[in-house]
Design brief:
With 194 residues, this protein is α/β, with parallel strands linked by helices. It is 57% helix and 12% strand. Helix 2 (31-40) packs across helix 3 and helix 4 (61-72) runs parallel beside helix 5 (90-102). It binds adenosine monophosphate.
Length: 194
């Protein structure tokens, strides 16, 4: 299966992506994680990404698209993949369409985690205390929510128009949300490897 997991910062996307992809035996590809690994290793990509990430802004499309194109070309993506945090702009949607058209691949489903805005901010403040992420300060959290609302929320209309969008309630325990997503995907024909 070729899947996208969408949802605002704090919706539990990263946690769910890892669980769902492991269950399906496909890689979870998180652009945020790849950027953070590059920042930690102080690579040239990390140096570019860092200034945007620390401000809660998106890394430029050109940089992000090139990185995803490389990652999707790895052989582990042949059976499918779950993209977490990409695409986030309409330009990235079009770019992803073009990568997939070059192969014979198409997306099978887009899952949107829906969570109330107050719950999101509370969750991120909690994560700030446990993980100490540089972009989990209150100002940056607010900016990331705004950027998501302006640039990424409109993508759901695009995927809904293609008949690919499935909204899932992202409120509740991690296990419960995972069950909602796996139930939905099973209904779409995805088979678990566990
Ligand atoms: P995340 O871990 O998904 O919340 O991403 C953390 C940060 O990485 C975001 O706030 C952006 O600065 C950057 N980032 C991750 N994915 C993308 C993307 N698809 N396009 C642009 N920037 C991204």
């Amino acid at each position: 299966m070729r899947l996208l997991l969408m949802g605002p910062p704090g919706s539990g996307k990263g946690t769910q992506a890892t669980r769902i992809a492991a269950g399906l035996g496909i890689p979870a590809i998180s652009t945020g994680d790849i950027f953070r690994a590059n920042v930690a290793d102080a690579t040239p990509l990390g140096r570019v990404a860092r200034e945007y990430m620390d401000a809660g802004e998106y890394v430029p499309d050109q940089v992000t698209n090139a990185m995803v194109r490389d990652r999707l070309a790895h052989p582990d993506c042949e059976p499918g993949f779950l993209l977490d945090g990409y695409p986030r702009t309409l330009q990235q949607v079009h770019e992803l369409d073009s990568f997939l058209d070059e192969g014979t691949n198409r997306l099978d489903a887009v899952v949107e985690l829906v969570v109330d805005r107050d719950v999101l901010v509370d969750r991120l403040l909690l994560r700030a205390r446990s993980e100490g992420r540089a972009d989990d300060t209150l100002d940056v959290i607010r900016r990331r929510q705004e950027v998501y609302a302006e640039q990424t929320a409109p993508l759901t209309a695009e995927y809904a128009a293609r008949g690919l969008l499935h909204a899932v309630d992202g409120d509740g325990q991690v296990e419960l949300v995972s069950e909602r997503i796996t139930g939905l995907l099973a209904g779409l024909g995805a088979t678990s490897t566990r």
